Amino acid sequence: MAVHEHPHRSPRSYLSAAFGRHRTGSGSESAVSARLGTHPAQAYSLASLRVLTGFVFLWAFLDKTFGLGYATGSGKGWIDGGSPTRGFLGSVAAGPMESTFHSWAGDTWADWLFMLGLLGIGLAVMAGVAMWPAAVAGTAMMALIWMAEWPPAKHLSDGAPSMSTNPFTDYHVIYAGALIAVAAAGTGATWGLGRPWARLPIVRDHNWLH
Predict the structure, then answer these.
(1) Which of 11, 103, 159, 175 is the residue whose CA sits 20 to 30 A from 45?
(2) How far is CA 2 from CA 18, 42, 43, 185, 188, in A?
(3) How distant, in Å, are the alpha carbons of 28, 30, 173, 204 from that of 25?
(4) Residue 119 backbone phi and psi in degrees, to 5
């Protein structure tokens, strides 16, 4: 979280502001200001990262839902009866969860969970609200997709080269890192609805909703 340096504050005061379960009205406003305040250049840079990262998820939802002709062909969208998970999970060819992903491919619960996750994460991150829940959900999603692609494998289960370019860090890891970074930095106040969201009573009382 981005906070201004104040020499007269003790480390305990920062922890209390960040994780305290009960605050007075003026204390809540101070905590919100400390959490969301940052240098303008940093704020705009991180807000740009936040919006772009959120759009990655939102675009994936739109393309898979309507078959916009990019990753999902025209007429093969979710609204056309296509399954957002069948093709990808059914083609998993490496890793310890290969058979598990095959069994999930095309299941209704998997399709709905995946698509609602894309939509919810995309909208929340772009709007700058519920950043921590979105970061946790997005990181979990990216971890599952990383396991499905399994970059550590040099060969697929049929013996063919995997063509993995890096055994650990791929774009799914970068997306997860970006989600955590923009949530920790409290970027929702810039080009977003972070400030009014943070002032909602339920959000003030439950810090994990920021």
Answers:
(1) 11
(2) 11, 10, 10, 5, 12
(3) 5, 9, 38, 9
(4) -65, -50
Helix, strand or coil, per DSSP, at residue 128 = coil
Predicted TM-score (pTM) of this structure: 0.80
- How do residues 31-54 score in pLDDT, each as one tens digit? 444 444 457 888 999 999 999 999
CB 208 within 8 A of CB 68: no
Q: What is the mean pLDDT of residues 163-191?
A: 96
Write out the two tokens for 111: 């399709």
Beta strands, E only, 109-169: none
Amino acid sitting at position 74:
S
**CB-count exposure of residue 108 (10 Å: 0-12, 13-18, 19+):** exposed
